[in-house]
């Protein structure tokens, strides 16, 4: 950790603590937080031994942000988004240098839960943010650090989402939003209860043409919660369906963006998701101080993808009228064994993933006296079985003037893939919180994970895929918190967590046979699981008009997995490999208060993410690569794709009881491009964005809201990768591909409460 970071955090904490001591008010510290997936308890915030953030339905209100990920980014220090897919409903969400992404091939490092159900998908632990309707979210808790209780992928932390019920969100509301990019959104939600039985239902739809070329998107969500509340037993049945058709045309060459910001490289890049999910949670209060929480679930996600891309084929050396491989010698044949015409200058990758996850958990939660001290504990077990059937085919096609690929050519049988994979995760976990004294609290937790991944080739052509892999580990954590005064508390913790290699990584881990994500799989040499060890320490405090916190953290990941790029127009051909250790460390500090009728907040996050092990990185499009496409990463080089500095500010002002104005500002420093692990090509530019929102409660039943994003119409990029633009656009030689941010945009909505 750089010395100035620690000094800055200490100085900030000391100065704020002195200011708070001058405020003669009590600290409102009791809040409801997620202490395990789907398990919530009221807890004194001063006794939590790690950084925790929680949002309520006001924070995730869709009239204030575009989607759930955007709401989390606006309100939580250390979170950033990037436009890797170029679609606002498909962002990479990054926290403390770890990622929750919808993109196959991105190393995942955050665990995401919805009503106790893990929504990281089976195939690649990806997170489909588009399948979670933000309007249905009643609360969200982010638990920082490598928390073992939250299981696989919680290397950087976990986000636990709780959706609405008829008890938490009674009433009926209907609304409509319209505005920039042709976006039209409508919804209907209704909830109610009679004290014992409750219901909540939501239906919404969104359609827009997008701000970039050929980038329409559509989404539909329906969700229901049916609840029972008894003297000893509570039941909640959650049902959800979603249908999304999103176009995310990704990064474009830097030279092309200078000509036109809305330009795309190749099209289409379409992803269609279909979700069906059901979960049942029962809470049985055994005594006044203990309860048993049982959850069972099933989740199905079907994903179709259509990706137009550049062709790596070329005219044959001895016959220019037909296509051959890159060497110009081996002819490409269609299903009838006929050579394919060289007039085809592009390819269309068509993929289908059918994923299913099912399982459940049981947690015994209670409070007792231990050694004469207050003690709270929970014991739990869970099991999650997953399966995925993946098929893909590659068709040759033609690029039109808009660089759109029409898949009107023959399929290439040699590139077809059919694979089936199953996963089985079993775990047992325990947590205990002991009040050592009126000022000291000790938290202990541990989890034992065992993961089995089995892979089978269904095409008959890739028998090297067949195999089974088992990963297991015991992960502990310990935390200590103490009250320094009535208004100031301190905490420190150590924790470990793991991430087992996913089926998509295991099927694409052979240097001798690289694959094109997400369409080719060729063999499955073993990979080691990633193990994160994290330490954190901090201070927090405040009063009725001011809250503050500051923390330092360091997380070291052993056997980290990265994608080695051997080619592809957008560096999407290669293989996964363990590259040694990486480290993410930083400082987070925030202030929140109220002054002259204005609710305001500000937060700063410093992140240093770097490689601790040197290695040879294959980066085929890097201008400094040798003849084999290799660059040498040194110890201390920064991990690409992560901003080092982030600052967030915001304020809400209510000049009258029925009118509220809000402003939010976000600053992010630049980042190195993916593929430039040696940090030789410079960073993307930093940027500052400001958003406005306004809300007018016209009558008790009518609310009108307006929102403007990127108020100053800044031209910025939030993502970069290396590629080969000349494969489609001769004359463009800059290997930098950038993900442009959206221009200024505004929306107006009306909500009726019936």
TrEMBL record:
Residues spanning the signal sequence: 1-19
Compartment(s): Cell outer membrane
Keyword Membrane annotated: yes
Highest classification ranks of the organism: Bacteria, Pseudomonadati, Pseudomonadota, Gammaproteobacteria, Lysobacterales
Membership in a protein family: Belongs to the TonB-dependent receptor family.
InterPro entries tied to this protein: Beta-barrel_TonB, Beta-barrel_TonB_sf, Plug_dom, Plug_dom_sf, TonB-dep_rcpt-like
Occurrences of domain TonB-dependent receptor plug (ranges): 46-158
Entry keywords, A to Z: Cell outer membrane, Membrane, Receptor, Signal, TonB box, Transmembrane, Transmembrane beta strand, Transport
Entry protein name: Outer membrane receptor protein involved in Fe transport
Domain TonB-dependent receptor-like beta-barrel stretches: 243-711
Predominant cellular place of this UniProt entry's protein: membrane
The keyword Transmembrane is annotated on this UniProt entry: yes
SUPFAM superfamilies in the record: Porins
Membrane-topology annotation of the record: Multi-pass membrane protein
